[in-house]
């Protein structure tokens, strides 16, 4: 069955598009809706968004591949992104990443076999005063230590 | 010093309309709509000397005045909340703790250019900040500060909070506009400038969060009071985000012209763990690093930092102690720019990756004789040869690290290993 929005999401889609002066300006919010609904933005999702926004699929594909928050491949239930940029690096980001790799038994870019965690690195998240830090899905976790990371992982099912 | 930008953040529930109003919030907005013409407002902000806090430091009132008054096209005001410059986290604090100041500032700037649709473009990762802005806008709509016929004046204004999706380049104003148009965050050639050809080809002004958040205070207290603070050319106060090896990291508001060394040693508690300073980047990751002896007489204002060979930029102060490997630091930032280059202009698209690879091999013991001059050559060929300032932002720090810590780079190459961390 071809992908399409649920009636609820379709309603949100209409509301979103109506707020903007031009339909295509709603591209990013609509892609975010699609990612929430479909989990990731594969070719089918891209084709669907292209259709409802009346845009060429190649343009939508170009947008999806440009932004780091838009995932073309599936990610685990908890997407862990450790900031690696200088202020975090100066305060031990690399150690935190190494600890996470060891703890989860995966390398960067991989997902645990139970599909619980995906681990990636990310560039500066505007949280340099509370470095090292990571983002898991929508939430920031700051002033990280190995003990704190262990605690956080255990709290996430 | 009286705080302007951080005046509200310690109040309980500072993010709510109730708290903001109890401290006079939206009084400036009412005053403007009820009693000021756009020209009077622009002149007032010109007189305050306020300059754009996103990094470029362009006079705000002047930027507004470039918008044609007789254009038949719609005009747009965009608040740039896409804070992504390495070492910068001041806008995030303002958005999360005092979102109404940013919203009120956005309304004021929109009125100055007679825009009826304003956008707040916030970087997508800041989910919490976006929820705070959504809530603030909703409260302002309910209170009648946003919407149709505001204060019975006949002036209409809609505000849309728009979330980005992860791309540093969207902090550059024309890239931000491309993104807001639904495309990749690709910068556009200037001229024409956004003031005449911006969002969807319409007159547009893009102002940073910190710039906008200063406006309610300036209107409330008057331009002269603001202009009395700071130096001759850098007026008022500025936020500094301090990170890295510093005893008390965080966001600080200081009067422009404040001594840099005193700021680090006294206000920020000095280098962490009693270590020695090795270098400091004063204005975010895209600005040249300064050696300890170079900051002795520097003051925190646009002119003084520039005279010392760097730039005030976003005020992102990254402190590095004497245990820091400067090759590693240079490589880290080069990797950032290689990752974030939008890919439009070949000098930047190719050059950023090239520099990253060379820094990487030097740091990892595979550097070759001539590598340093090669990086300087690549960096020199990026400078000034790209559509937007990103190219310079990548090239400047790379060259500065090599020029100022050349011995350390040469030792890495000669000994074929990292000579600092082993």
Fold and architecture overview:
The complex is a heterodimer of chains A (157) and B (422). Chain A has 157 residues and is α+β, with helices and mostly antiparallel strands. Chain A is 46% helix and 11% strand. Chain A has helices at 7-19, 27-38, 43-53, 57-66, 86-90, 93-104, 146-155, and strands at 78-83, 117-122, 134-136, 139-141. The mean pLDDT of chain A is 96. Chain B has helices at residues 17-22, 27-35, 38-48, 60-65, 90-97, 99-112, 127-142, 173-180, 209-221, 223-227, 260-267, 302-307, 326-340, 346-363, 371-382, 390-404, 406-415, and strands at 76-81, 117-122, 158-163, 204-208, 237-244, 250-255, 258-259, 277-281, 299-300, 316-321. In chain B, helix 2 (27-35) runs parallel beside helix 6 (99-112), helix 5 packs across helix 7 and helix 13 packs antiparallel against helix 14. In chain B, strand 5 and strand 6 (250-255) form a beta hairpin. Chain B folds into three domains: 17-227, NADH-ubiquinone oxidoreductase 51kDa subunit (Rossmann fold); 237-321, Ubiquitin-like (UB roll); 326-415, Up-down Bundle (de novo design (two linked rop proteins)), CATH 1.20.1440.230. The chains are: A alpha+beta (157), B alpha/beta (422).
Task: Provide key terms for this protein.
heterodimer, A: 157 residues, alpha+beta, four-stranded mixed β-sheet, 4 strands, 46% helix, B: 422 residues, alpha/beta, Rossmann fold, Ubiquitin-like (UB roll), de novo design (two linked rop proteins), 3 domains, four-stranded parallel β-sheet, 10 strands, 12% strand
**SSE arrangement of chain A, N to C:** HHHHEHHEEEH
Shape of chain A: elongated
Strand order of the largest sheet of chain B: 3-2-1-4
Strand residue content of chain A: 5-15%
* Mean pLDDT across all amino acids of chain B: 97
Strand count, sense and barrel status of the largest sheet of chain A are: 4 strands, mixed
Q: How many domains of chain B, as an integer?
A: 3
Total DSSP E strands of chain A? 4
- Characterize the biggest β-sheet of chain B: 4 strands, parallel
Q: What is the averaged pLDDT score of chain A?
A: 96
What is the second-level CATH architecture of the largest domain in chain B? 3-Layer(aba) Sandwich
Beginning-to-end CA distance, first to last residue of chain B:
45 Å
The DSSP helix count of chain A reads 7
Structural class of chain A: alpha+beta
Oligomer: heterodimer
Q: Runs of chain B with pLDDT <50, length 5+?
A: none
Classified in CATH, the superfamily of the largest domain in chain B is NADH-ubiquinone oxidoreductase 51kDa subunit
Overall geometry of chain B: globular
Strand content of chain B: 5-15%
């Amino acid at each position: 069955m071809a992908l399409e929005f649920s009636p609820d999401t379709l309603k949100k889609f209409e509301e979103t598009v109506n707020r903007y002066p031009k339909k295509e300006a709603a591209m990013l919010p609509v892609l975010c809706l699609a990612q929430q609904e479909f989990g990731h933005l594969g070719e089918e999702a891209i084709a669907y968004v292209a259709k409802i926004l009346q845009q060429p699929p190649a343009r939508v594909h170009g947008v999806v591949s440009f932004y780091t928050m838009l995932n073309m491949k599936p990610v685990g239930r908890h997407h862990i992104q450790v900031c690696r940029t200088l202020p975090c690096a100066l305060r031990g980001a690399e150690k935190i990443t190494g600890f996470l790799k060891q703890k989860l038994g995966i390398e960067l870019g991989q997902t645990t076999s139970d599909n619980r965690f995906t681990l990636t690195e990310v560039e500066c998240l505007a949280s340099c005063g509370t470095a090292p830090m990571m983002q898991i899905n929508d939430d920031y976790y700051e002033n990280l230590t190995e003990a704190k990371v262990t605690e956080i992982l255990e709290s996430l099912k | 010093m009286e705080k302007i930008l951080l005046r509200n953040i310690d109040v309980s529930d500072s993010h709510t309309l109730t708290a903001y109003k109890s401290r006079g919030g939206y009084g400036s907005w009412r005053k403007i709509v009820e009693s000021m013409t756009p020209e009077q407002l622009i002149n007032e902000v010109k007189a305050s000397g306020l300059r754009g806090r996103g990094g470029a430091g362009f006079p705000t009132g002047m930027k507004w005045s470039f918008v044609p008054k007789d254009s038949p096209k719609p005009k747009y005001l965009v608040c740039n909340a896409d804070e992504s410059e390495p070492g910068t986290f001041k806008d995030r604090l303002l958005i999360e703790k005092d979102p109404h100041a940013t919203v009120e500032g956005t309304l004021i700037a929109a009125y100055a250019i007679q825009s009826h649709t304003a956008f707040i473009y916030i970087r997508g990762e800041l989910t919490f900040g976006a929820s705070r802005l959504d809530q603030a806008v909703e409260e302002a709509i309910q209170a009648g500060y946003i919407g149709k016929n505001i204060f019975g004046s006949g002036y209409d204004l809609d505000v849309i909070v728009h979330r980005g999706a992860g791309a540093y380049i969207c902090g550059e104003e024309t890239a931000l506009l491309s993104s807001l148009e639904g495309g990749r965050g690709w910068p556009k050639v200037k001229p024409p400038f956004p003031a005449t050809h911006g969002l969807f080809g319409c007159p547009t002004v893009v102002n940073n969060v910190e710039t906008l958040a200063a406006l309610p205070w300036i209107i409330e207290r008057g331009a002269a009071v603001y202009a009395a603070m700071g130096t001759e050319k850098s007026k008022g106060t500025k936020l500094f985000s301090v990170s890295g090896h510093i005893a008390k990291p965080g966001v600080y508001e200081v009067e422009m012209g404040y001594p840099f060394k005193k700021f680090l040693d006294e206000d920020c508690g000095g280098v962490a763990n009693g270590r020695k300073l090795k270098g400091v980047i004063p204005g975010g990751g895209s600005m040249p690093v300064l050696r300890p002896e170079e900051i002795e007489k520097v003051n925190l204002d646009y002119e003084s930092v520039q005279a010392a060979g760097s730039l005030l930029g976003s005020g992102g102060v990254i402190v590095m102690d004497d245990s820091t490997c400067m090759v590693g630091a240079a490589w880290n930032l080069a990797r950032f720019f290689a990752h974030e280059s939008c890919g439009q202009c070949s000098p930047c698209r190719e050059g950023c990756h090239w520099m990253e690879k060379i820094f990487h091999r030097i740091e990892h013991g595979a550097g070759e004789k001539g590598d340093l001059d090669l990086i300087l050559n690549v960096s020199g060929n990026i400078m000034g040869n790209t559509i937007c300032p990103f190219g310079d932002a990548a090239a400047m720090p790379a060259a500065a690290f090599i020029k100022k810590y050349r011995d350390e780079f040469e030792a890495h190459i000669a000994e074929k290993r990292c000579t600092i961390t082993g």
